[in-house]
Structure formats: C-alpha cells, structure tokens
Amino acid sequence: MRGHILKVTKSRSLVKSFSYRVFGTLTSWAVVYAITHKGSLATLIAIWETVVKILVYYYHERVWNRVSWGRTAN
C-alpha cells in the first residue's frame, strides 16, 4: 500500500453528513424549543438548519478529500 492514497467515495461523505446532522438537528431543536417554548418554530428552524448544514458539510468534505496533507497509507 506504500504510495497509495485511499479515495473516499461521495456516498460515504453523504452518509457521514446525514448521520452527523441528525445529532446537530436534535440539538438545535432542543435549544430553540428551550428558548421559545414553540415546537413549530423549533421544527421549522431545525429543518432549514439541517438542509443548509448538510450541503455545507458535504462540500466541505469533498474539498478536504482533495487535500493530501495529513493523510498516510498504512
């Protein structure tokens, strides 16, 4: 494996994005609800926040996958 750089698939980045956002969404919903005591507002904000942050995280991962710094082949 010496000299080989393992590639990360787009589907892996996408699944990681979704799983990470589940926890973030639950946290965001809880914070908004704790402040406003409005479930509908908390849900609306959590949904929008989730969609935006999934897209941001996905593209962030794809950019970093092009950077070889910090990668090693075992």
Structure, described:
- With 74 residues, the protein is mainly α.
- The protein has one domain.
- The chain contains two helices and no strands.
- α1 (10-36) packs antiparallel against α2.
- The radius of gyration is 17 Å and the shape is elongated.
- The relative contact order is 0.19.
How are the elements arranged and paired?
Layout: H1 10-36, H2 39-64
Tell me the β content: under 5%
Main sheet attributes: strand count, strand direction, barrel closure = none
**Could you tell me the number of beta strands?**
0
Radius of gyration: 17 Å
Q: Give start-end ranges of low-pLDDT stretches.
A: none
User: How many distinct folded domains?
Assistant: 1
Q: How would you describe the shape?
A: elongated
Question: Structural class from helices and strands?
Answer: mainly alpha
Tell me the distance between the termini: 7 Å
**Overall mean pLDDT score?**
88
Order of helices and strands: HH
**How much helix, percentage-wise, in residues?**
over 70%
Determine the number of helices (DSSP H or I, runs of at least 4 residues).
2
